Amino acid sequence: MITMLLQLNNIFKWVNSGGQRIFLLKDLSLKVEEGEFISVMGPSGSGKSTLLNVIGMLDNFDEGEYDFLHESVHTLKEKHLATLYKQYIGFVFQAYHLIDELTVYENLEMPLLYKKISGSERKALVADMLDRFNIVGKQKLFPTQLSGGQQQLVGVARALITSPKLILADEPTGNLNSKQGEEIMEIFKQLNDEGVTIIQATHSEKNAAYGSRIINLLDGRMV
Amino acid sequence: MIEIKTYLRHLLKNKLYTVVTILGFVISLTFILLLSVYIQNELKVDDFHVNKERIYRLENESVDFSPPIAPELKNSIPEIEDFTRTLEGDGRIMVSGGQKLKIDYLGVDASFFNIFSFPLLKGIPEEVLQTANSIVLSKSMAIKLFGSGDAIGKTVFINTTNKFMVTGIMEDFPSNTHFVEQDALVNMKAFKDLWGLQKSLLEEYGFASISIYFLAKANSNLPAKAPEILSKFKKDYWLYKEGWASIVEFTPLKELYFSSKTGNGTQSNSKTLIVILSIIVLLILFLAIGNYVNLTIAQATFRGKEVAIKKLVGSSKKQLYFQFIRESVWLCLTAVLLALVLSKLTEPIFDKLLNTQLNLNDKISFANLVVCIVILALIGVLSGILPAIKIASFKPIEVVKGTFRTKAKSVYGKVFITFQYTVAIALLACSWIILKQTDFLRNKDLGFQKNNIVYLEYLSGTDKKNTIKNALLKIPFVQDVSLTWQSPLTGGSNQTFDYNGKSVSFQEFAVDSSFFNVFDIKMKSTEVAYSDKGVYLNETAIKELGLTNNPVSFKMEDEEIPILGVVKDFNFKELRNKIGPLMIKQQQANSYAEYVFLKISGANTLGTVNKIKTTYSDLVGNAEFELRFVDDTINQWYEKDERTGKIIGSFTLLSFIISAMGILAMSTFYMQQRKKEIGIRKVNGATIGQILSLLNKDFVKWVGLAFIIAIPISWYAMDKWLESFAYKTTVSWWIFALAGITALIIALLTVSWQSFRAAVANPVEALKDE
Q: For residue range B253-269, what is the model confidence (pLDDT) as tens digits?
């Protein structure tokens, strides 16, 4: 049976600039079912990142409705939102956003620390991830000692470690060369096959093709 | 011009930074300025005497010698050109038929005005004090007595009967001399009549209470003669033969003000205080510069783009250095100007705090202006150089590409914060302990009643004692009256005598029978028959004499003195001293009375006091007198300590302001650096509370370290300070704990201001790719 993961209805987001209202998202509606792999495409400034941030509950919106697993996000309090996304959503960034002062191991462990998971369980989970992404040998290294591809691998691993239902990836391969990019996309595909829902923003047709559905954005609107 | 414009805009855009840096500098500089002027003033005391290099005071363990010693030495030591002896006196002065005014005067030799350079307004220095009945009045005393009229040649009376002729008017003594301000100077010879002596005091070897100043001949070495004089004294001067003194020193004039030895009519200041204040000036300067450096570097992160673009369009590193140094010089200039204004405004408060007169207006001179500008430039350059190096080294490409990050590696910043908090915590603990000690001293049970007792100076002849006492007793609410010579407030007069072959040193009062009732002092009568000669001894005295529980008499020199009663020990001196042996004699009909103590009921105090004043005024004729409360006087004993406490308190406040600013700067810097990390952590589920504790943890660590360093320092300092008191409060652990917690709370509040902003910020902002 197919279950609905999230649903956006007529979402508007704008900023006021010089007396003018500039729309970042305009009347956007979207349904995402569990297990989908959606690629969001569009030129720079079309609202891809904004959409991902809204879905990830990092950013708010001005009008419209947003349901996530039958909870209406637009009515929820901030604290509740945090628990919601902490539990179900993982993020992957173009610039990886690993903490330079922490080792690979510690970077992976960090989200678990914020979920009150016991020490032994954390150890097991981190070990699993290191193993799964073949980076056991790099666990003691700092991000700056890794290549971009390896850093993004750690970024994906960190997003996955809390077993989210949804992974939001904003240009995950943007800073990588094509070979590294392909590796990451392969991993996403594999994850998707295991049942994780993925929404990625991308410029590349090739990467977009990995998805099961493509959404095109232009000036905050779906086209 | 463009440079100044950019800088001004930068300042305007970052109002918090601007206000904090300038204000920090202004406050610190104000303190530095005022303290420097104070220190300079204190070091220049007695600098105005023309003969300052040639004036010495003769000293032994104290500064007391017998009058004939001075001419004796002058005759035998060729290096001595001249001398003047000094002896202080006080009393009442009046013109015939006028009001009796309180007067403090100094008996000196005729050479006084030749040796010292106190300016005479009227009269010739060599002539004014030639005779026993000549008097030189201070300008303000002359005005009080004669108004604006000419005083020269007029007659004045001291203590009603002693007639003097005004021969000169002197400028009031300035505050920058080791002599206390005097209302008049008289010739030493006058004491014979003033004190009603049989022969001139000047011939009296037995009277060893005068100070002697010598004027050495030019290019001679008078101090080198000290050993020769000492061996002579040991041979034939009783003071040395009997072991009362054992050293001879010639102390140069410039050291007298900082001498701990009190002479006749002198004032002093503690050299330690000056040294401590000088250290504090340097410390504040260091803190202020450090703060500026910290704040500016913290702020510099926001100027990365400006620097990068300048570099890209071809500015050299050197040009950037100079830009930043110029900026800090400008900022310093603004701060100095504001500090000057603030100094002028706070001068009265400061004067009061240090019990001094700074006279800032007198300091405006070209030389000081030059010094000011040089120091200003120096501070400007010193504080500009580190930020300049730091900021100018930004790599422009990184900044433009958005990969630029300042590293959290500034160790000196952390060391500096720790240092600041060490200073702040140590000072806070010290000022609290000083406060606790003064409070302890004030509230300690002295063994006698101090409330509801007022006292007056006794201003009449011995024959009037009973009349005055009875008249005062008739006033409603006056419960009892006691006439005394010496009192629990004055510490008694020292009496050293031979007791069974050993020398014992007692303090001595002479009081009438109401004394014990007025002060509510417990006294146990012995069964000894009453005798005029009989005395009361305190418990310590009994112990000192080795007497039993029921003493009857003791042998003083060759005389057997009956003991009428044993007095329970009470404190009769500042609590720096332990209770010593005390002998209380009885006031006889012809004995000299010094004070009148009145026990009042406490109801209608104001009315009673006024009634006492009018009654007493009628009794002693038209004389100036003061009525004081015993408890007020006791409170004043600790004024100096309280002032030290207040000074340290002000510095505590200052150091806290500075350290709060420092930690604010550091936290701004730190949050800026960790913005991205905070964003990542939040996206990964960290709560605001978790972020706050993460960010604040480091600062807590530094303050904690400061606390650990500060405890032993302040504990040691306070332990040393308390050593000078016989009665000490306990140095409780909770004072240190409280000081530490206070510092921690202040630090946390300051840091949280920044960290909270960082923690609640939307992580999207931080993670946006530039």
A: 999 999 888 888 898 88
Residue B684 is nearest to which of A53, A100, A114, comparing CB atoms?
A114
Residues of chain A contacting B687 with CB distance shorter than 8 Å: 82, 114
Burial class (CB in 10 A: 0-12, 13-18, 19+), B136: buried
Q: Which amino acid type is present at position B325?
A: I
Torsion B30-B33-B34-B35 (CA) sign = positive
Q: Determine the Cα–Cα distance for residues B50 and B741; give it in Å rounded to an integer.
A: 55
Tell me what pLDDT residue A124 has. Answer: 94
Please, which residues bridge with residue A214 across strands? A39
Cβ(B501)–Cβ(B558) below 8 Å:
no
**Where in the sequence is the domain holding B251, given as residue range(s)?**
55-256
Is position B754 within any domain?
yes
- Write the pLDDT tens digit of every residue in A115-147: 778 989 999 999 999 998 889 999 999 988 999
Q: A114 and B762: CB-CB below 8 Å?
A: no
Place of tokens 């509230």: B443
Q: How far apart are the first and last CA of chain A?
A: 29
Give the H or E element holding residue B547: none
Domain A4-222 homologous superfamily, CATH: P-loop containing nucleotide triphosphate hydrolases (3.40.50.300)
Is B274 a domain residue?
no
CA distance B21 to chain A (A): 31
Q: In whole angstroms, what is the distance from residue A160 CA to residue A111 CA?
A: 10
Q: What string of H, E and C letters represents the secondary structure of B123-177?
A: CCCCCCCCCCCEEEEEHHHHHHHHCCCCCCCCEEEECCCEEEEEEEEECCCCCCC
Q: Cα angle vertex B743, ends B737, B749, to 5°?
A: 130
- Contact of B284 with B339, CB cutoff 8 Å: no
Nearest to A114 among B408, B679, B686 (CB): B686
What residue ranges in chain A does DSSP mark as E strands? 4-17, 20-33, 37-41, 63-68, 71-72, 89-92, 166-170, 197-202, 213-218, 221-222
For the segment A163-183, the average pLDDT, to the nearest whole number, is: 89
